[in-house]
Write a structure and sequence with these properties.
Layout: E1 8-11, H1 13-20, H2 24-39, E2 48-53, E3 56-64, E4 67-74, E5 78-86
Parallel strand pairs: 1-5
Antiparallel strand pairs: 2-3, 3-4, 4-5
Length: 89
């Protein structure tokens, strides 16, 4: 028997505001990455990056092309999107 579990994305006010201000193509790209996190919120280390947004640092952010997504998993049910920002290597 196979069980398909999907996590639900919940956005911080900061992340929601940033996402809503993106250009349509960037919005679509970031939403695709968030959908991937909803399917599997434990991506491989090769997709982890450090994201700095203002004075906050997200050491295990999800690398999404030119974007980083700071997130956490809560109650084995929710992917909390805490921050979204440009990835700078």
């Amino acid at each position: 028997m196979s069980v398909n579990v999907r996590f639900e994305a919940v956005y911080s006010p900061q992340a929601r505001s940033y996402l809503d201000q993106l250009a349509p193509d960037d919005y679509a790209r970031v939403r695709d990455c968030i959908t991937q996190l909803e399917r599997d919120p434990y991506p491989p280390r090769s997709l982890a990056t450090v994201l700095k947004v203002d004075s906050d640092i997200y050491p295990n952010a999800y690398w999404c092309g030119p974007w980083g997504i700071g997130f956490s998993v809560v109650d084995d049910a929710f992917v909390v999107i805490e921050a979204i920002g440009r990835y700078r290597p």
